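As promised in the previous annual report, we have extended the structural survey to additional targets. Below is the entry for OsmC family peroxiredoxin.
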Amino acid sequence: MTTNSASARYEGLGKAGKGSITTRSGVLSDQPYGFGTRFEGQPGTNPEELIAAAHAACFTMATSFALAAAGHADGTLDTQCTVTLEKDGDGFAVTRSALTLNASIPGIAPEDFARIADEAKANCPISKLLNCEVTLEKSLEG
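The corresponding structure token record, generated without further manual editing, is:
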């Protein structure tokens, strides 16, 4: 078992409030977030951006390990993830996490690549965590 942690602080309430996020590792240290960074494009981060980063990283690592287990020794995986936040009743909900994978894996058959990527999407821990539609577009170079 492995555990990780992060903390958030919010000073003030509602739209006027300002928050900051810090991770145990220190990669994020007092990074600003709030209404402006979430909905108005102001500098800083927001929860959906962090989910997108986590999902892209998790899926890409899962795909890498699955490719290695299938006997592939080299390649490059580039993943983009877009998380969608939509109005849901009186609040909001994350409704979709869209993964786009561009890969270069020497010697892999396209159908093997597609199967491995689809399995990684279904089985990476962040995909399993999310309670929303998870999609995957994939392309193989070469």
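Residues 83 and 103 are 21 Å apart (CA to CA). DSSP finds four helices and six strands in the chain. These points will be discussed at the next consortium meeting with the crystallography subgroup.
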